[in-house]
Amino acid sequence: INKYAFSGGQDSVENHRKYGANLEVDIPFKYLSFFLEDDEELEHIRKEYGSGRMLTGEVKKRLIDVLTVLVERHRAARAAVTDEMVDAFMAVRPLPN
């Protein structure tokens, strides 16, 4: 994310503080709009980052934190799946009407 996610931040900290981020093209912010469950926090990030008071690195770090929790929950849920559960899910059965 830090290396490859395209940001809408400016080319220098000074310009970013002056002009703010372009949220329309900022990929980490778009991901946060989907994965961050706290709408108030997302709005706070939108205002702070869009105005230049928050830097790109801070937004990317928050996205990494959010995605880490999401991936860990997915890993735990996947580890809880048993062969019996897979067999029951994959069994041929009539579809309900």
What does this structure look like?
Belongs to the class-I aminoacyl-tRNA synthetase family. Keywords: Aminoacyl-tRNA synthetase, ATP-binding, Ligase, Nucleotide-binding, Protein biosynthesis. One of its GO terms (biological process) is tryptophanyl-tRNA aminoacylation. It is a single chain. This protein has 97 residues and is mainly α. It has one domain (13-90): Tyrosyl-Transfer RNA Synthetase. It contains five helices and no strands. It has helices spanning 13-19, 27-35, 39-51, 56-79, 83-90. α2 crosses α4. The longest helix is centred in the last third of the chain and has 24 residues, at 56-79. The protein is elongated and about 60 Å long.
Query: Element order, helices and strands?
Result: HHHHH
**CATH architecture label name:** Orthogonal Bundle
> Radius of gyration in whole Å, from Cα?
20 Å
Low-confidence stretches: none
What proportion strand?
under 5%
Q: Characterize the largest beta sheet: strand count, sense, and whether it forms a barrel.
A: none
Distance between the termini: 45 Å
What is the count of structural domains? 1
Count of extended strands: 0
> What's the CATH H-level superfamily name?
Tyrosyl-Transfer RNA Synthetase
- Our count of helices gives 5
Summarize the model shown.
The chain is an all-alpha fold.
Keywords:
97 residues, mainly alpha, Tyrosyl-Transfer RNA Synthetase, 63% helix, 0% strand, ATP-binding
